[in-house]
Amino acid sequence: MGGQDGLPYFIFHTNGIMLQGTLIYGFVNSVILALLALGFNLTFGISGVANFAYGALYILSAYTAWMLLTWLKFNYFLSIVLAVLFTSFVGGLIYRFILLRVRGMPISEVIASFGIGLAILEFFRFLGFVGSEYTLPVFIDGSVSLGETYIDIQRLLIVGIGVVLVFFLWLFTHYTKTGLAFRGMAQEERTALVLGINSDKMATFSLAFGSGLAGVAAITILPLGQVAIEGGYSALLNALAVCIVGGLGSTGGVLVASVLIGFAQTFTATYIGSHWMMIVSLVAILVILVVKPSGLFGKQKELEERI
Amino acid sequence: MKRVGFLCFVLLAFLICFPIGSQAQLKAGDPVIIGVPTYLGSIEGGESLKAVQMAADEINAKGGITIKGAKHLIKIEASEIRDGAPGVPVPEALLGIEKIILDKKVHAIVVGPFRSEALLATMDLLAKYKVPMLGTIAMTPVSEAKIIENPEKYKYVFRTCLTARYFVNLLTGVMTQLNKEFGFKKAYLMNQDVLWARGTVAGLKTWYEKSGWEVTGGDEYPTGASDFSSGLMKAKAKEAQLLFTCFDMSQSGILVKQYKSMKVPALMAGFISPMAGEVGWKTFDGQIGGVLNAIFELGNIPSDKHPPAKAFYDAYKKKYKDPLQSGHGPAPAYESVYVLKEAIERAGTIEPDALVAAIKQTDRQGVMGRVKFDKGNQVVYGTDLSKEAVAVMFQWSEAGERRIVYPSALAEKKIWAPEWVLKPGK
């Protein structure tokens, strides 16, 4: 006993494989959560609007890509680019024609955007977008082995796209005129106005940009499964959970919260029970609201940071 | 003021004592109203409604239902109750059902709740308003136990679809065959955390233990879960030969894709709703060869060995220009309309008590086989079409065809196991 074929070796070996797999899938799960939350967070950070239509825009993008690909027989790459641009455009329109009128009234913003989201999602249901045929192809088919863990290439691409997106966002907000205007708005809107930054225009851009990021998340993540209306609601919930834990408006907070929640969910599923996985983010929200209501890196409730 | 209060009290007492039930008498030209309150947003619910409409159109084309010599057309009233959607509470579904009973004055309900949890709560509502229902989706056997325990109260509740109990019977037949053919005896169980799936897994687990199988582990996933890597890793690490799956949510498609990408060397068998229809091959990019999936009621898949099932499947495809995607719901929904028609004609009335007595006497050959109710108002399922209704297990071929492999009387092909399952690592 105890040799290569013995029970202790088997248990140790098996546990090692499980740990390795959990770490790999935990990391992928973290990146998926970060991708889901980046757009929501960016919009809130700049315009102060909590865009509750975010989940619907996520699904809108996927269905648009599917329609272009399946009905109009467009090239896949062209379909996803057009879908993301269309989603951005719709996001901009939502701000320009609806949210602008209630801007500064947080409750009204939430109700209006949530209502729009419901309308979009349920409209798809009304049109009959229910069933197994609504799938997007993976970018590259197949899987690779990392140590003893197999993982599909699409998940590796998600990690790559997530990292590139974060780097792109950093470059954009530090080295482009629009990006700097975004940061100006995020820091102090009235001062930004004094400097000639059109706050309504920037808020429209921020909604469009955030919606576009929802689109990027959708066309990257949804090829892993199916496009379903319910996915819109869960995308919004996940984005909210990450943003609340990380601190609304804080990109660093989103990244840290994604890692915390992502790993916590995967470890819970592996070592405690899969059915507890879904409540991890809810518990995280509860804990953070009790301990630090502004989130790990959030500043919107800390008055001293405003002065 | 006191007088108004008293009148209100009398009115309320009257309503409680004599609830507004279905209208017991039909005038000439009045339609028979059939309610279809269910989760219409699901594939199963949406397609079941279409199957109901198809049956109603067929009956109406022949003049409708004959009651004491007079013809009455069937009118369908559908209602979205969303009981299968994540986070929708049972009381919301109940409100939807109560609304269709009171507002649309339905004479009977078919299809009914999607979730078993909602079905159990609906039973009291049906008893209160005396509305017969032929359920075709919710699968918990608990409802039968309630009917047997209190037959007078719950006599209005019937079910024509498969239940978790009969699903376990189907599975044990398949498992016995897998054990005989390939020597499989280690299973890992993955299921959705809902009543019918939990019931199925509990029943199957008991059978595994009695039959010398080893259950290497199991995972329950809440509705909406979208990452199954942990369960698949455990199944692989514990060297399961069979991966039993039991899911009716759209996200379960992710499980199938993850199962393939993680190269789990175990044969997947059970029920995953997105994999049931012929469109499943395209959904999963043609990577599901060898996977076994149940079809809960014959007719939801065609069979050359039972022409009525093929006729129904083809007629649906012709009428709606799309093939059925559900493995559960449409065939019994279609059958239920005919069961109802025949029962109304036998009873000569739509009066609820007479109607349920007539439904109870049903004995017909239809798309699913023979339809007969047991003492729990449940259609009896088995493997012999001449004696019972039949559920089947099919297997995806490498060419993307669904081939029935169980029961043997309907089998189109012998059950097989892919090489990567029989010789893992090669």
What does this structure look like?
The complex is a heterodimer of chains A (307) and B (426). Chain A has 307 residues and is mainly alpha-helical. Chain A is globular, with a radius of gyration of 21 Å. Chain A has a domain at 29-227. Chain A has a two-stranded antiparallel ribbon with strand order 1-2. In chain A, a hairpin with a 2-residue loop joins strand 1 and strand 2. Chain A is built from 11 helices and 2 strands; from the N terminus they run ααααββααααααα. With 426 residues, chain B is of the alpha/beta class. Chain B has 2 domains: 28-162 and 307-382, Response regulator (Rossmann fold); 165-295 and 391-422, Rossmann fold (3-Layer(aba) Sandwich), CATH 3.40.50. Chain B is built from 14 helices and 18 strands. Chain B has helices spanning 2-17, 43-61, 90-103, 116-129, 142-149, 164-182, 195-210, 229-237, 252-261, 280-283, 307-320, 330-347, 352-360, 419-422, and strands at residues 32-38, 65-67, 70-72, 74-80, 108-111, 133-135, 157-159, 186-192, 214-221, 242-247, 267-272, 292-295, 363-366, 369-372, 381-382, 389-390, 392-396, 402-406. The longest helix of chain B has 19 residues, at 43-61. The model of chain B is unreliable at 17-22 (pLDDT under 50). Classes of the chains: A mainly alpha (307), B alpha/beta (426).
Shape of chain B: globular
Structural class by SSE content of chain B: alpha/beta
Oligomer: heterodimer
- The average pLDDT of chain B is 92
Strand content of chain A: under 5%
In N-to-C order, the SSE pattern of chain A is HHHHEEHHHHHHH
Biggest sheet character of chain B = 7 strands, mixed
Label the structural class of chain A.
Answer: mainly alpha
Separation of termini of chain A? Answer: 69 Å
Integer-rounded radius of gyration of chain A: 21 Å
Q: Count the DSSP helices of chain A.
A: 11
Q: What share of residues of chain A is helical?
A: over 70%
Could you state the CATH homologous superfamily of the largest domain in chain B?
Answer: Response regulator
Strand order of the largest sheet of chain A: 1-2
Largest interface: A-B, 43 and 45 residues
Mean pLDDT metric of chain A: 89
